[in-house]
């Protein structure tokens, strides 16, 4: 049990970060315009629980009751600690906790709440955490139980796992800062992203893919890459099922790593003990299934090992976000610091950067975690249209160390100099993945073949092109490889001059032959 919440002294103010204040101000403005269903979007680690506490706390000060609805006991415990520290007077609606219906704020497990709706007064407002789950049956029941209440949905990924939007549940969307902006400001940790391979899912259903992930070779490759890129870092493993997770744990233990498995079938006390041991460093590798993917605050997590392939941007972004919580240097006060001071403190702290090991090659489908997303209430289809996704993937992979970077990066941190084109990872013919077994010669041959294909394509684009078209091509290529054409106009004039010179010479040779 948690101790009762202390009361804030009269006149005290709950301190918010600047962007949190902007989000809450915009939400209140929407409510004043009688918008009753609002979707707030902010990156993982942006402090959505604090935002919820502020909204519900201010409502309680006006004598209004409110619910904070979550879908997992781990989130309830973390939320209760935050609300308690902020002086919010709350009750908990969950199995194992006494019901306190007179409390102005209730932190609710959605599965328990649906069975106790008749025991609680109807709230003035409801805040739904991890709102991409709201389509689930119990969430809909809770929302329908208070049709006159205002509903605020909070999430970092405003799409359901299948890509559908949240328009049926929200009338307005307010988008806050995304991961890239918060990293630049020192509110989230920077990261290094490695994608040693890309799975070939052709002909495989999810059950078959999950079985393949448990194969000894693939598990062993994951351990090998972890030793190379994340040795000693506290790592959360994301697995497709329990069997694959237990296979990973066995492989890490065989390599001398303190590794444990956790999943939802365990008692919550056992799960809490395992996460506590992970936070304190007693466990180095904690492999889990559908437990730590969202809503769980684990600042000590330094590495995410993704051993799955998914079509869901929401799942992938929620998972990688687990390692973005920063660890500042001891004694540092992030609340009063400047952006530069926060970044410097992270660099000097125990986690200067997080590591992501993507054994499923998901980055080749989704890009980088810090990419700016054009979220839409209508979901993935509308988002992709507004993002104007290019035919080529705007990331590149180092063939030496398999680190993935934005396409603007010319030199990998390992020292490898990138070419001007993107080269996708090559799948092995005899296995589901290729996890770095390809030699340098094969990679170089693939790069040479890609360069030749690009050269031919560019020649075709230039053939017969007008002056304006040539200048446009030069600008587009400069956007991919800055500085390739110092003066697009001079280059276009040169190409047209060479073309005319060739044509003139050709006509003269033809006339002479006659």
Automatic annotation (TrEMBL):
Domain named Helicase ATP-binding is located at: 29-176
Gene Ontology MF annotations: ATP binding; ATP hydrolysis activity; DNA binding; helicase activity
Which InterPro entries does this UniProt record tie to the protein?
Answer: ATP-dep_Helicase, Helicase/UvrB_N, Helicase_ATP-bd, Helicase_C-like, P-loop_NTPase
Write out the transmembrane intervals: none
Record's keyword terms, sorted: ATP-binding, Helicase, Hydrolase, Nucleotide-binding
| Protein name, per record | DEAD/DEAH box helicase family protein
Q: List the lineage, top down.
A: Bacteria, Pseudomonadati, Pseudomonadota, Alphaproteobacteria, Sphingomonadales
């Amino acid at each position: 049990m948690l101790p009762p919440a202390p009361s804030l002294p009269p006149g005290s103010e709950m301190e918010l970060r600047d962007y949190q204040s902007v989000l809450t101000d915009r939400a209140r403005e929407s409510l004043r315009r009688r918008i009753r269903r609002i979707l707030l979007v902010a990156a993982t680690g942006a402090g959505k629980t604090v935002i919820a506490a502020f909204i519900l706390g201010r409502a309680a000060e006006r004598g209004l009751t409110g619910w904070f609805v979550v879908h997992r006991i781990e989130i309830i415990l973390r939320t209760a600690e935050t609300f308690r520290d902020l002086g919010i007077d709350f009750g908990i609606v969950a199995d194992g906790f006494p019901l306190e219906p007179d409390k102005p704020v209730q932190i609710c497990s959605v599965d328990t709440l649906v069975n106790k709706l008749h025991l609680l007064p109807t709230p003035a407002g409801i805040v739904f955490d991890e709102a991409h789950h709201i389509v689930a049956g119990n969430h809909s029941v809770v929302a329908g139980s208070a049709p006159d209440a205002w509903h605020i949905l909070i999430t970092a990924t405003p799409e359901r796992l299948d890509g559908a939007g949240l328009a049926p549940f929200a009338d307005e969307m307010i988008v806050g800062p995304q991961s890239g902006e918060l990293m630049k400001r020192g509110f989230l940790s920077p990261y290094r992203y490695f994608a040693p391979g890309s799975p070939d899912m052709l002909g495989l259903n999810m059950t078959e893919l999950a079985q393949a992930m448990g194969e000894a070779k693939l598990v062993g490759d994951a351990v090998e890459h972890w030793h190379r890129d994340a040795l000693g870092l506290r790592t959360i493993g994301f697995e497709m099922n329990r069997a694959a997770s237990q296979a990973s744990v066995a492989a890490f233990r065989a390599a001398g790593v303190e590794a444990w498995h956790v999943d939802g079938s365990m008692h919550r006390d056992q799960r809490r003990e395992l996460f506590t041991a992970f936070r304190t460093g007693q466990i180095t590798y904690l492999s889990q299934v559908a437990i730590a993917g969202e809503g769980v605050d684990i600042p000590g997590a330094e590495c995410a090992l993704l051993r799955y392939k998914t079509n869901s941007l929401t799942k992938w972004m929620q998972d990688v976000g687990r390692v973005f919580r920063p660890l500042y240097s001891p004694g540092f006060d992030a609340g009063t610091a400047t952006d530069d001071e926060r970044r410097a403190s992270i660099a000097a702290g125990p986690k200067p950067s997080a590591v992501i090991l993507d054994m499923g090659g998901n980055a080749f489908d989704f890009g980088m975690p810090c990419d700016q997303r054009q979220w839409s209430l209508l979901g993935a289809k509308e988002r992709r249209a507004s993002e104007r996704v290019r035919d080529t993937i705007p990331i590149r992979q180092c063939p030496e160390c398999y680190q993935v970077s934005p396409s603007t990066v010319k030199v990998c941190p390992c020292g490898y100099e990138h070419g001007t084109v993107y080269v996708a990872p090559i799948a092995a013919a005899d296995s589901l993945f290729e996890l770095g077994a390809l030699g340098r010669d094969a990679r170089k041959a693939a790069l040479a073949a890609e360069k030749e294909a690009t050269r031919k394509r560019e020649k075709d684009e230039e053939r017969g092109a007008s002056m304006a078209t040539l200048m446009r091509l030069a600008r587009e290529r400069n956007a991919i490889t800055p500085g390739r054409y110092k003066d697009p106009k001079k280059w276009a004039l040169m190409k047209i001059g060479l073309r005319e010179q060739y044509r003139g010479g050709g006509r003269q040779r033809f006339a002479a032959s006659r």
